């Protein structure tokens, strides 16, 4: 059996944008990041107890992992947790593509184990889950999670691991005020019933729910997220205005309210951080307790917006 139960901070830190090359228009977010700036992010996060870093080979084809390792360099390995992913769509054609991808990640991350290793997308659960067992036995993987899996696929992966004395300890799906597919399909209930940690990603919908953007001030042109969200910003105004009003009473931003909502739903949000100020916001969000009436209000306004932000890579839950 796995030795330790997975224990994580209230909020995890996402490094999807760290995979951007920094060239304008090149990369999902169009981010311009510096090594010193990211070390500052790490310093502030670690000192505030935000110690779980989520990355993936798919984020810039390993670039995010490499950049993250540089930013964490010099720290004791026990001070932070690393979460990375096996993406079936990127699998090599060797005898053991899962182990191969993990080894490459460990090399880029400069470590001999990862705290959480995810099957990134549910391509073929019966094929891709069994190779995790020897990795768990060897200690190179401490805990297993599945991402973008339906309730049935999560249960199947858990049965496969269970036969070897292990289990699925975490689920990572897109979950936000605008996209609650995992709640409606019973995935959150499943996680509660089976003591599985649910990690919510795209909680801020790549910036569209921060309140910083509107039709007059759209997301950065040339970035992939601009193409997805700029056309629906006008439908989000009532929701982001309400989030801002709730935040104002607490000295918090709309983005921090969206994060606090994800925590209130019993999930661990993975929030992308590229600036030290983002960490300050997460510390504030961690301390916000939303009333049931506020949660219901936000969800009603989100439903009224009537948008579908499911990613092209995501299954119908």
Automatic annotation (TrEMBL):
Residues 11-302 form the NADP-dependent oxidoreductase domain. Keywords: Oxidoreductase. InterPro entries: AKR_Detox_Biosynth, NAD(P)_OxRdtase_dom_sf, NADP_OxRdtase_dom. The keyword Oxidoreductase applies. GO terms for cellular component: cytosol. Pfam families: Aldo_ket_red. GO terms for molecular function: oxidoreductase activity. The keyword Nucleotide-binding does not apply. This is Putative aldo/keto reductase.
